[in-house]
Each structure stands twice: as C-alpha cells, then as structure tokens.
Hints:
The chain is an alpha/beta fold. Helix content is 24%, strand content 26%.
Amino acid sequence: MIIALGGGKKVFPNPLVGAVILSPEGETVSEGFHEFYGGVHAERNALEKAGDVTGCTMVVTLEPCSHHGKTPPCADAITSSGVARVVIGMKDPNPLVSGKGIELLRNSGIDVEVGLFEEEARKLNEVYLHYIATGRSFVHLKMAGTLDGKSAAADGSSRWITGPEARKRVHEYRRNSHAVLVGGGTAVADDPELTVRDVQCSDENQPVRIVFSGSALPEKLKLFSLPGRTVVATDGQENFSNAAEVWKDIQTPGQLFVKTAEQGLGLILCEGGGSLAALLLRDHLVDRLSIFTAPALLGSTGIPLVGDLGIEGIEQILRMEDVTVTKTGNDILTEGRVVYRVD
Ligand SMILES: NC(=O)c1ccc[n+]([C@@H]2O[C@H](COP(=O)([O-])OP(=O)(O)OC[C@H]3O[C@@H](n4cnc5c(N)ncnc54)[C@H](OP(=O)(O)O)[C@@H]3O)[C@@H](O)[C@H]2O)c1
C-alpha cells in the first residue's frame, strides 16, 4: 500500500497504484508504482523489474486496467507474464475498467482474489474515487478557531489563534494539495501567501492559489505578486485585470470544483473564511474536515468560525464521523467526514 503513495499528486486524474510481485515462496521479487499521469502503470513497472515471474503472485492496490488509455492494458501484460495469482485491493469503479480487468485475468486462467484490503485501498484513493463518482475535486476544509468557536477578532484580525505546530501541519496539508482555496473576504482581511513554507517543498510542488470572489480584489495582494499560479474564480461581474488567471462564469462552488478537476487539480485545501466554509458545507461539498481548536476565547464580538448553515433546530445539527482527535502543540485537531442530511 505504501509503495502506491510514491505517485503523490502527480497521478491525478489517475489513481494511486502500487504493485508487488511475490515468488511462490512468498519472497518479494519486485515492486512498482504508478509514477505520474500518462506514465507506465504500477503492474508494468513491477513486471519489467522482475524477470521470470512464472508461478508468482502479484498484489496490486486496484483492479488492473483492461483498456487502451495513455498506455496499453495492464491486464494483458499480466496474462502473458506467467503470473499465477493476482490479489487485488479493490475493483476499479471507472466504467472503462470496472470488472473487465478482473474478468480478463480470470478468463486466462489466473487465480484472482478481490477486496482483501478494500478499506485501505479506498482510503488510499479517496480523491480518485470521489472524482470518478462525482466529476469534482475532493475538498478538504481546514479551519482554526477558539474554544468559543471564533475564527477572528471583531476587527477581522486572526493571526495567530493557533500555535506553530498547528501551522506546520497546515503547511503539510498545503504540500499534499493540488490547490489552496480561500474566499475573497479572507484574501482581503489576511493578505495570505498560501504557499508551502514551514516544510520542505520544491517550486514545482507548490499548490495553485485560488480565490473565490464575486467582488474586486486589491491589486497589491501578495497572492498576485508571488511566483506560481494564482486563479480568481468569479461569476464574471467584476473585471479582475490584476489576477494572473481568471475563471469566469463560476457561479457556485460546485461549478468551481468541476473546473478544478478538469484542470487536473484533484485535492483542494480550503482555508476559509467562515462564509465560504458555510457555503461549501450547505452544498455538501466538504469531503474532509479538519478543525484546530486553540485554548483561547474571543467572546461574542469575535467572527464565527463557520457562517450561517441554515440550521434552525437541533435535529439539523451537522456531525462528523470517522473522527480522530489529536493534540498539536497546545491545540486540538479534530478531523473526520461530515455527515450530511439528505431530506
Ligand atoms: N481562523 C481561521 O482559520 C481563519 C481562516 C480564514 C479566514 N479567517 C478570518 O475570516 C475572515 C474572513 O471570512 P469571511 O467569511 O468574511 O470571508 P470569506 O469566507 O473568506 O469570503 C467569502 C466571500 O466574501 C466576499 N467578500 C467579502 N469581503 C470582500 C472583499 N473586501 N473583497 C472581496 N470579496 C469579499 C466574497 O464574496 P462576494 O463578493 O461574491 O459576495 C467572498 O467570496 C477574516 O477576518 C479572516 O481573518 C480566519
């Protein structure tokens, strides 16, 4: 499973895939992973390194492909290799593959086992699986607030509510993401850089910066002068002559995340503010939620961590599941999936 992670952000819109070939005695013969979109697939990488694989077992995180895409079908390479058994983490839900790769292997006499580590395989490829199911990018919303649920003081200042350990964690999130998104209110109030700084990151690995705003933004914002790609996503009413790149006619966050997926940006880290966070939550668009809570108070004049969710009664409360709670310096990090009500 770990080997598949080698592809990192470079494989989207393809999945992360790792393959290991084991000898009949159970010894590791070779390993391979899908390194980048359009590159050789994991199974072929492992087969190329292995030599004679007669009677061997291949363990692979996802169903081998059966169609001609940017590379020839992996299932064909496996059937002609001499591999006797294939253990597959999970079936590929991509309609171009979905079951056809497994069928091809079985029809050629290979012993195939599917779903042995499906839970881990699903977690590994949550961004890809979400994209195949919805056509949208996977959205990770990160917020930081006080014990009384405020994200900024009454004057809009919010630096810094949480400590250095929490901020370092956020830089790791940024490094793992294809793009970092904020609302226009945050871009103006905080003038953020949205770059990866506290952890090592090459220039080419820096995330794209996206501001979602219907109102004009000041030209002097750092976002517009820093190296790298900055996008303003807007409904097109304003003239954003200062921005490096403008996506017009983006009326809703849902449209934005279809556009980001089309642009090869699979994982989007949204860093607020509260109005944008509420908009995403109301539209059921937050796929992972991470909230840092600092041991501090701002009182009733502080700005709420999340804007209006349209909740009128306790039965509409938004809860999280698969929750982990960790201490990050003096702050508490709560992470999980949002449970959306479907009325
Ligand atoms: N503690 C934290 O983790 C954290 C994180 C982020 C932000 N914050 C704080 O949250 C506050 C900002 O949140 P928010 O809810 O006001 O805004 P936001 O969620 O960042 O942005 C939402 C919308 O605000 C509008 N907007 C408001 N003022 C604007 C302006 N002057 N220029 C351009 N667009 C503007 C834009 O929409 P339309 O123009 O389309 O109406 C934008 O899409 C700041 O005080 C910031 O410090 C805290």
